[in-house]
Amino acid sequence: MTEISRYALDMAAKVEAFVRDVIVPYEKDARRDHHGAPTDELVMEMREKARAAGVLTPHIKADGSHLTQRETAVVLIKSGLSPLGPLACNTMAPDEGNMYLIGHVGSPELKERFLKPLVDGSGRSAFFMTEPAEWGGAGSDPSMMKTTCRKDGNHWIVNGRKTFITGAQGAKVGIVMAASAEEDTKGGACMFLVDLPDPAIVIDEVPNTIDTSMPGGHATLTIKDMRIPADQMLGLPGEGFKYAQIRLSPARLSHCMRWLGCCIRAHEIATDYACRREAFSKTLIDHEGVGFMLAENKILIQQCELMIDWCASVLDTGSLGTVESSMAKVSVSEALMKIADNCIQVMGGTGVTERTIVEQVFREVRAFRIYDGPTEVHKWSLAKKIKRDWRKAQEAAKEAAGA
């Protein structure tokens, strides 16, 4: 197991102080778009303060190297103590995952052009993978991808539709995923880095959603005859699905980290409320029905921390960690949902108002149970692995008996 460095621990402490002292007051800031998400003006103002405090993009060092996953966890959990914290510190989704992918797969030229503005916090990004259900496109099953790319000289032409593309509206960098129409790629997918906005990408709709923490919302869009220079392909042709796994496993875990931070804060708020509010001649926490919910939260928070640390340790060995990240995503998202629900219940009527961030945390965590793969898809995938392992064990037993 990799050790957590003093650098990472000190950075986590700096991030926590910054989020609690500087960013929490911004939670009442009225600069929101009509979907309820923070405006880019607000985001950039907070990032300037993060830059001044030395906590902008804290998971990537000045030399461009990433913290280990265990170290990233201690930092990202602290950035999540406010729903605005990841935006301010530049640890938000999808940017954090996109930085990770470009950093691991991109050429030096692509890193200079597309990664640099993400790391320095001057622009946002979007990851174009999911497609509309009514179009029969890829959702939880990326093999259903209908967006296509084909060669045309030293360019690739991309056509298709995408949906629930977080942050597409207002983003400066895009990672576009498309199924290759070229025979030599055997139907594999390709990834491309593109500058945004691009006239070939038309946003059709940005629906209002239950979550409101991400600028740009979750857009549905059409890509028509988009010409992308061949040297903007990320990695090799036909390898897109492999690269998606490089990104998705740590990205799922990063979601767990950030939203655990939010739930820790919600638990603090609910605890403070329960220890001050009186009913039936004693404080709420002294009533077992309330105290036991907070006790359950404490247990669940500890379980989440252990699950995140375990999965991070696996990823730090160099493993893709798809199984481990699936287990972590299911376990942590479901536990956080219970923590947030308990906080609402403890606070009663106050818990469902905008007086605190508790109701927002509840909404955001509810969405988290769906994005990056809903609980049921991860369980289905794990069940398939259980069956494969069982078959291997049976075959091994037969061979041993035959010997």
From TrEMBL:
<keyword id="KW-0560">Oxidoreductase</keyword>
<feature type="domain" description="Acyl-CoA dehydrogenase/oxidase N-terminal">
    <location>
        <begin position="11"/>
        <end position="121"/>
    </location>
</feature>
<dbReference type="Pfam" id="PF02770">
    <property type="entry name" value="Acyl-CoA_dh_M"/>
</dbReference>
<keyword id="KW-0274">FAD</keyword>
<feature type="domain" description="Acyl-CoA dehydrogenase/oxidase C-terminal">
    <location>
        <begin position="238"/>
        <end position="385"/>
    </location>
</feature>
<dbReference type="GO" id="GO:0033539">
    <property type="term" value="P:fatty acid beta-oxidation using acyl-CoA dehydrogenase"/>
</dbReference>
<keyword id="KW-0285">Flavoprotein</keyword>
<dbReference type="GO" id="GO:0050660">
    <property type="term" value="F:flavin adenine dinucleotide binding"/>
</dbReference>
<dbReference type="Pfam" id="PF00441">
    <property type="entry name" value="Acyl-CoA_dh_1"/>
</dbReference>
<dbReference type="InterPro" id="IPR050741">
    <property type="entry name" value="Acyl-CoA_dehydrogenase"/>
</dbReference>
<dbReference type="InterPro" id="IPR009100">
    <property type="entry name" value="AcylCoA_DH/oxidase_NM_dom_sf"/>
</dbReference>
<protein>
    <submittedName>
        <fullName>Acyl-CoA dehydrogenase</fullName>
    </submittedName>
</protein>
<dbReference type="GO" id="GO:0003995">
    <property type="term" value="F:acyl-CoA dehydrogenase activity"/>
</dbReference>
<dbReference type="InterPro" id="IPR013786">
    <property type="entry name" value="AcylCoA_DH/ox_N"/>
</dbReference>
<dbReference type="InterPro" id="IPR037069">
    <property type="entry name" value="AcylCoA_DH/ox_N_sf"/>
</dbReference>
<dbReference type="GO" id="GO:0005737">
    <property type="term" value="C:cytoplasm"/>
</dbReference>
<dbReference type="Pfam" id="PF02771">
    <property type="entry name" value="Acyl-CoA_dh_N"/>
</dbReference>
<dbReference type="InterPro" id="IPR006091">
    <property type="entry name" value="Acyl-CoA_Oxase/DH_mid-dom"/>
</dbReference>
<feature type="domain" description="Acyl-CoA oxidase/dehydrogenase middle">
    <location>
        <begin position="126"/>
        <end position="208"/>
    </location>
</feature>
<comment type="similarity">
    <text>Belongs to the acyl-CoA dehydrogenase family.</text>
</comment>
<dbReference type="InterPro" id="IPR009075">
    <property type="entry name" value="AcylCo_DH/oxidase_C"/>
</dbReference>
<dbReference type="InterPro" id="IPR036250">
    <property type="entry name" value="AcylCo_DH-like_C"/>
</dbReference>
<comment type="subunit">
    <text>Homodimer.</text>
</comment>
<dbReference type="InterPro" id="IPR046373">
    <property type="entry name" value="Acyl-CoA_Oxase/DH_mid-dom_sf"/>
</dbReference>
